[in-house]
Structures are given as structure tokens and as C-alpha cells.
Amino acid sequence: MQIRESLELWEKEYLSPYACHSIDSKGRSRQEEQCDIRPVFQRDRDRILHSKSFRRLKDKTQVFLTPEGDHYRTRLTHTLEVSQNARTIAKALRLNEDLVEAIALGHDLGHTPFGHAGERALNRVCPLGFEHNVQSVRTVELLEKGGQGLNLTYEVKDGILHHQTKGTPCTLEGKIVRFSDKIAYIHHDMDDAIRGGILKETDVPKEIGDVIGYTCGERLDHFIHDLVSTSYEKGYILMSEPVAEAMSKLRQFMFENVYTSPIAKAEEGKAEMLIETLYEYYRKNKDKLPAEMLALLDRGEPLERVVCDFISGMTDRFAIARFEEIYIPVAWHG
Prior knowledge:
Elements: H1 3-14, H2 40-49, H3 52-56, H4 75-92, H5 97-106, H6 115-125, H7 132-147, H8 154-161, H9 172-195, H10 206-212, H11 216-231, H12 241-259, H13 268-284, H14 291-298, H15 303-312, H16 316-327
């Protein structure tokens, strides 16, 4: 039974000549026997989906810190929306769905608790710096599976590392995820802001709405259709100039009215203080780190980086609980 081989052959026959074919992967850091039924990128997707760091995304902030309500996005639901956008685009362009899904599901595995507030705090206090995309790669290369990592393919790690706007992924699939991430957060952060009473649909400037629509659904549909039609059967992933310009203006609108809004961000200062305080505590009390972190120190990893590893892996609730355990006195019971 040659299931994997037949799937690899199907990719060669059906996918676009611009696609990254599983059989042409640059491979893994450590050689391992191939799966008999799954091509390499599908296997990577499965490894990410079953990882502990993926499960922790369910209790990590996207934009709104510990929101009261079941329908606000978390880092996990953001990741799933990125994945869905990317798969839709990849399928339409006949590119490798397994690769875009693996990159999309893994792109935020290294994100901190409390969203970008936590990332800013660690970057500020750690002399080695901190970027969540770099930490996501470190998570899959080293931190998962007790220090063994997930041993993912080069193409998946490259897409994870370069998923931000400033990045340049080596595959079209990675470029799709980079666009899909931006599309997802602009779409769902606007939706959450409207749900939270920070914005109204009618607040979107007319010069933007006339190009890409006046509702969240219209804009999401327009972004994806434009990306597909502009990139179809071409060796690049791009939006048309008018839509790209409208997206840039909408993103700026979101920064001015949501991402820096005193309503949405009222608690971020407290979150940053909490993260910075935990960092200093564990830097000065390394014996309080869990065994798997101490094992990294024994392997020669810098203390400052290992403290960042521990804190960035925390969920919002776990970070708060650790802070309370260390610094908040407990009532005495005689």
C-alpha cells in the first residue's frame, strides 16, 4: 500500500507549478523515517495540532484582555481563522493546503500571555530581546516534547518565522499565511470591537468602505477574492493596488481606534507590569523554574532566554495565578 507516494504523485499532477510539493521539501533537521500514509507537511500539521503549546492558545489574549463574554476571539480562534483563510486561498490557487495549514496553525505558538502587551514587556526587560515569531520557531524546534522539539520541515519553520508583514517567506504558501494573518486580525478585531461597543460599522471611513465594503463579512470576502484573482496562476501572492491601499488604511484606522484605544487597552499596563515582575522574579530565583526549564539551563541555554521560554508559554490565567501565588498574601486559617 503506497498511500503517501500516491498523494505525492497527485500533488505533482494536480497542484500549480508554483506550489511547494511535499516530495521536494528541504527536509527536517533530524532525519527520520517517512510516514507510510502522510506526506511531510500533513505530518507537520498533525504534530502542531497535538502539541501542548497549541492547546494553550485557547487561554491567551488576542486583543481584549480576559474579556467577559464567550464570543470574543482568543489566540486559538485567531489561529483557526488564519488557517481557514489560508486554506481557502491555497485551494483556489492550487497551492499546497497541508503546508499553509501547518504554517498557520504554528505561527503564534510562541506568543506570550496578554497578547502584544506581554510581548512588549518581555522584549523590554530581556537583554536578548523577544519576538513572538522567533519564539514560535524556538517552541517547535526545542521546547516541545521535553526539549526534543517537533522536528518540523524547513518550509513550515520558514513560514512561521516570516509570517509578519516584514517577513519574506521562501514559499508562496508562506506568503499566503502572511496575508491571511493580517486579513484575519483586521476582520475579527473589528468584529470584536463592534461587539464591545468601541466601534460601529458606520465608523469605517467612506474612502475605505467604497473599495472593500462596509461590513466585516463584505471586507473579508473582498480581501480573499481579490488576493485570489490577483495571484491566480502567477508566481507571486499579491492584492490589487486599490485593495492593498484600502487594507493599509483600514489597518491604520484600527491602530488609531482599537489597538491604542484607552477602552480596549485600559488593563494593558497592569499586564505588562505583571509580566515584567514575573521575569525579574524567575531571573533571580531560577530554582523556582520547573524541571524542564532547568534542563535547558543544564544544556547551556542562557538564563534570560529560559525565563522568557517559561513566561511566554504561560496562559493568561496561569500567569495571573503565578503572580498571586508569589506576591499576594493568603489569608491565615488557624
